[in-house]
Amino acid sequence: NAGVTQTPKFQVLKTGQSMTLQCAQDMNHNSMYWYRQDPGMGLRLIYYSASEGTTDKGEVPNGYNVSRLNKREFSLRLESAAPSQTSVYFCASSEWSLYGYTFGSGTRLTVV
Amino acid sequence: DAKTTQPPSMDCAEGRAANLPCNHSTISGNEYVYWYRQIHSQGPQYIIHGLKNNETNEMASLIITEDRKSSTLILPHATLRDTAVYYCIAIMDSSYKLIFGSGTRLLVRP
Questions:
Q1: Is the pLDDT of residue A4 over 80?
Q2: Beta-strand (E) ranges in chain B?
Q3: What is the mean pLDDT of residues A4-13?
Q4: Contacts of residue B49 in chain A, CB cutoff 8 Å?
Q5: CA angle B86, A6, A77 (to 5 degrees)
Q6: CB pairs below 8 Å between A and B: how many?
Q7: % of residues, chain A, pLDDT over 90
Q8: A97: chain B residues, CB-CB within 8 Å
Q9: Phi, psi of B16 (to 5 degrees)
Q10: Between chains, do B46 and A103 touch, taking CB under 8 Å as contact?
Q11: Which among B6, B105, B100 is positioned nearest to B46, based on CA atoms?
């Protein structure tokens, strides 16, 4: 099925460890996004890529890096995980429209 | 993007209309009102959007006041599957990054 695929779905990290969250979309969308959602809160934008080759900071970029590997893939890296980064991470893609966002199923990350 | 204000929670009975308000008193003339919803930890789902005219689709209706300072999302016959968090976002259509607030948690009661 067409859509946004995130891996892994669950991850537990120790403080200070690093990891990369993967996201791929097969809809030929230009724009891709990474959000985080803490319990009981709304989504907050971490980074986004308006088009292949560009990335920009969102609302909460500290502690994260991103790579737009190609048009399909947009990865999020935590270089030194902290307990405050425990959250659900959503990747999304869109084709120049605010109503056409497609979200992945999320990655549940726990940092202990 | 204009700030939006929504009640933190609401409830309604199954089969009745759910009316979710949103205040966006500082909205500018070229900002649209978008509604998304998030059902139990899934990714958000687009519902509807509008500029100044009322809009209707198969999911919901959007009523925007004449001064555009507030709007109401109407789910005409709420079902248990409409239990979700509903986000109202005021944003320029030329933008391409959605910024979500805290939304309204709607509980549909049997």
A1: yes
A2: 9-13, 18-23, 31-38, 45-50, 55-56, 61-64, 70-75, 84-92, 104-109
A3: 96
A4: 98-99
A5: 100
A6: 59
A7: 84
A8: 96
A9: -95, 165
A10: no
A11: B100
CB contact (8 A) between residue B87 and residue A35: no
**Residue A36: closest CA among A16, A15, A58:** A58
The two three-digit tokens of residue A22, written as one number: 């993967």
Å between B7 CA and nearest CA of chain A: 13
B-chain residues within 8 Å CB-CB of A27?
A: none
pLDDT digits (tens, 9 = 90+) for B65-101: 999 999 999 999 999 999 999 999 998 877 778 889 8
- Which chain A residues are closer than 8 Å to B95 by Cβ? 98
* Sign of the CA dihedral running A40, B104, B102, A100: positive
Contact A92 B43 (CB under 8 A): yes
Segment A27-64, tens digit of pLDDT? 999 999 999 999 888 999 999 999 898 999 999 999 99
Average pLDDT, chain A: 93
